[in-house]
Amino acid sequence: ALQRLVDRGTHFVRWGSTGGLQLGATVGSDNEQGGFDATEHLLRSGRRKIAFLGTSHPGFQEFHDRWRGYCRALRAAGIEPDDNLCVDGEPSEQAGRDAIDELGKRGVDFDAVFAASDVAAIGAMHALQKLGRLIPEEVAIVGFDDIPAASLSSPPLSTVRQDSRRAGETLVEAAVEAVEYGNARTQLLPVSLIIRESSRAP
Q1: Terminal-to-terminal C-alpha distance of the chain
Q2: Contact 123, 93 (CB under 8 A)
Q3: What is the pTM of this model?
Q4: Which of 33, 77, 128, 182 is such that its CA lies 20 to 30 A from the CA of 71?
């Protein structure tokens, strides 16, 4: 569909990953840096067995970028990513619950979770609480997106915030630029780590 727009000379700007195949101008968040920051925070809190909930498949580029940031932070700390600690899953609360069940079936030990979405992180938190695991004393959790429910969860969820206001402004500016000049620049917007009770150091 994007290729057809390009072939017709349509001016458009899309929101999403700025990596991979580029068709037209793209505005997106720095997902890889967000994954790095979240994982580095967990490492600095003394966590060493950090599970990743999301998907590392390149077809889901934004999640893939978050996974790449997770791997980069681990390797910077001298830890090789463990496939047994990575569980593929969609951004849903049920997927977060299922991921904790899967880690249990694998019999792997973990002291932290980085989920590629807040809804999966909240689902994982509920599953851990059902198992009697204390958060953050036994397992620290960080999500991604800073949805409204993140600050209202129990405990409040640490997360990576995307600046939706700046994203909207940048998309409009890029669309105007595309119409006026025939093209627009691809832009990568910074993210910020929001630390709440779910991942504070024990």
Answers
A1: 49
A2: yes
A3: 0.87
A4: 128
